[in-house]
From TrEMBL:
It comes from Galbibacter marinus. Belongs to the purine/pyrimidine phosphoribosyltransferase family. InterPro entries: Ade_phspho_trans, PRTase-like, PRTase_dom, UPRTase/APRTase. Keywords: Cytoplasm, Glycosyltransferase, Purine salvage, Transferase. Residues 47-149 form the Phosphoribosyltransferase domain. PANTHER family: ADENINE PHOSPHORIBOSYLTRANSFERASE (PTHR32315). This is Adenine phosphoribosyltransferase. The gene is apt.
Length: 171
């Protein structure tokens, strides 16, 4: 995975001082590296039956839609409030200072659907746990949470105990 890491640019002090942002746009513009990343994500879930890939706004959409196409299944977006045009279910979750929320269309997941949740990065785990809650509230079964990157020093896996969680690259 060292080769993929070379295409993940680090931007210091973005979006605020002290943060080192992991920018995947160099990976996205390189066809062969993008394909390698996709194949690496697929390899994280051998022999798993998936009915729906849920992608988390917004960088989770890039590979989420590609995963859904490769797995020949549905893609459902999870977005910030007010971005989805139909009936939604909302999940509020805690941030370090305050709260945020995410929404999913109420008809996006059917009872018993086997769901792969995908986002670009696992950081503190709050967003991913909120998405797991949304999927389960609609009757879906979270088969796996997968990420292109994991920032292990932020202990996001702690919030995802009980969920099969995988990442291609770990920092």
């Amino acid at each position: 995975m060292q080769e993929l890491q070379e295409f993940i640019r680090e931007v210091k002090d973005f979006p605020k001082p002290g943060v080192v942002f992991k920018d995947i746009t160099p990976l996205l513009v390189n066809h062969s590296m993008r394909e390698q990343a996709l194949q690496s994500l697929i390899s994280l879930m051998p022999d798993r039956q998936i009915d729906v890939v849920v992608g988390v706004e917004s960088r989770g959409f890039f590979f989420g839609t590609l995963l859904a196409a490769a797995l020949k299944c549905s893609f459902v977006p999870v977005r910030k409030p007010g971005k989805l045009p139909f009936q939604t279910l909302t999940q509020v979750y805690d941030l370090e200072y305050g709260q945020d929320s995410l929404q999913i269309h109420t008809d996006g997941i059917k009872k018993g659907d086997k769901v792969l949740i995908h986002d670009d990065v696992l950081a503190t785990g709050g967003t991913a746990k909120a998405v797991c809650n949304l999927v389960e509230a609609l009757g879906g079964e979270v088969v796996q949470c997968n990420f292109l990157m994991e920032l292990a020093f932020l202990n996001g896996r702690d919030k995802l105990k009980g969920f099969n969680t995988k990442a291609v690259v770990t920092y």
